[in-house]
Amino acid sequence: EEAGKGEYDHYMKKEIHEQPTSLAQAIEGRIDPENGRIALADFGPGTFADVSSVQFVACGTSYHAALYGSLSLNQAGVHSTALLANEYSVAAPPVDDETLVVAVTQSGETADTLSALRQARANGAYTVTVTNVVGSTAAREADDALFIRAGPEIGVAATKTFSSQAVMLTLLGQRIAADRRGKPPADLESLLPDLAAMPDEIERVLESSDAASIADRYRGSRSYFFIGRGLGYPVALEGALKFKEITYEHAEGFASGELKHGPLALVTSETPVFAVFTGDEDEKTLKNAEEAQTRGAPLIAVCPDDHPAVEIADAHLEIPDTSAALAGLLANVQLQLVSYHAANFLDRPIDKPRNLAKSVTVE
Ligand code: G6P
């Protein structure tokens, strides 16, 4: 197993650095920037024209990708919700034959997700699995499967599979919106070239990131907060989950607008706030971040270089300019690196955090 790490100290770092390749594999043959089309040949000639609503079910990091996909689908005008698979059996929204239920699961073997998938199918929904593992239980049991082609992920903390899932769900969402309207959404024309450029943009982030020095600077803090709005919200949740999983330090992710409804009571000079700016009402997120900063919290802005947040932030993690639909994925790479370096300084067993398993096959 050691040999598989190549030049890297940990699988997690290797897998973070594999993202330019894994994303290129995810989109290969599935987008056509010149003709402004999404070609999900995985579904053959099938159409989503009759889909009236979409439910995503997933757990852990896959749930954050599912939330990302669900919010982007809502932004594209299609009714959708993301649900924790382990809550589905007690409070699933009703489904009918016009409901598409998408199970998002890297391994395709998570018991909670399989159980939600089976329930949705039994109730008459059309089901699709978005997974990394061909031949997995979820891929076999769903009506259709969409493979993210990320390659094996060994680190228990999911990294490259999150970005590939989020991109696949963005593509699927655009395709559903296009099928329903009979024409591609207006913003698809600018999205596709940005999508094609993602592998290079991630490479730029990996090459120039200040994540190690920022992780070092805020070492020993009491708690770490991550905030974001719109598509920045699932990225904030994922940033916090990654941080707590591998550093064992306390971290929480919030919707930026929720900070003032409670979490602000916890904010002190010992609670750095990582604010993710994705172009979804950034001016409001900036105000929320400033409120934390006024209470003494160091503010780390994750945004492009020319963003107004850079002027007030105590530290900056730069991301290249891209579509709002994709900016969060670049921010996520910066946050993955922060968690990795913070855990490394603490000498944690990064690839195998205590008490956690790569795939959880019990409910
Ligand atoms: C476990 C892993 C997480 C993962 C979750 C869902 O809890 O530790 O990293 O996100 O399962 O896994 P799945 O294979 O369904 O994506």
From TrEMBL:
Residues in SIS domain copies: 44-183, 214-353
Enzyme class: transferase
Binding partners and assembly: Homodimer.
Top-rank taxon: Archaea
Reactions catalysed according to its record: D-fructose 6-phosphate + L-glutamine = D-glucosamine 6-phosphate + L-glutamate
Name of protein: Glutamine--fructose-6-phosphate aminotransferase [isomerizing]
Entry keyword Transcription: no
Alphabetical UniProt keywords: Aminotransferase, Cytoplasm, Glutamine amidotransferase, Repeat, Transferase
Residue stretches spanning the membrane: none
Primary role: Catalyzes the first step in hexosamine metabolism, converting fructose-6P into glucosamine-6P using glutamine as a nitrogen source.
GO annotation terms (biological process): carbohydrate metabolic process; fructose 6-phosphate metabolic process; protein N-linked glycosylation; UDP-N-acetylglucosamine metabolic process
CC per GO annotation: cytoplasm
EC number, as in UniProt: 2.6.1.16
GO molecular function annotation: carbohydrate derivative binding; glutamine-fructose-6-phosphate transaminase (isomerizing) activity
Active site positions: 358 (for fru-6p isomerization activity)
Protein's cellular compartments: Cytoplasm
